[in-house]
Amino acid sequence: MTATGGAPTIVQAGLSLHGHLRTEQFLLHNAWGLHLYFYAGKLSLKGEVFPFSSGTVSITPPNVPLEWEFPYHAPHYYIHFTPSYKSGEVADSISFNFPIISAPLYPLEEFVRDMEVIGQSYQSEQLKSRVRLWNLLWKISEATEVGEQIDETLPSAVQIAISYINQHYASPLVISELANHSGVSHNYLI
Question: What are the strands of the beta sheet with 41-45, ordered from one edge?
Fold first, then answer.
């Protein structure tokens, strides 16, 4: 990404679950989209299809129709953001030096934790979240440049379970509900 100002402003962030519909279309008005996937699927934009796998991210530009193809259970983290601009610039003039889909990220836990913290704090600690996103974007850029590999030690279902526990640590945990949220059976999660 070409830096032209301060840290990006976060419009919306969190953990989302899709899959009840096999395809969905979106248009992010004036916002970039950063998605960290825990499933394999396809992203279409500008007439081109981009397959992705678990442990990869996509970065999509604003004001472009997007279509995702989902499996039945499709959890992912997302951050919708606008870059900071110098006076007189518009969203289309900012250039990001990322591929649409990254290589698998390693170590995945670090990227998951960054996305998790941003999702939890972007409204209450705006500056901290903006700086963390700025740093995350640079880490993704660097990881993509060297083509690092995903850490195979933690399956995506376990990553989702850990994230869910971190977000709901004050609530009682029910293993069957946690497994359902992660898209696996009770026995598999145990």
Answer: 23-26, 66-69, 41-45, 48-52
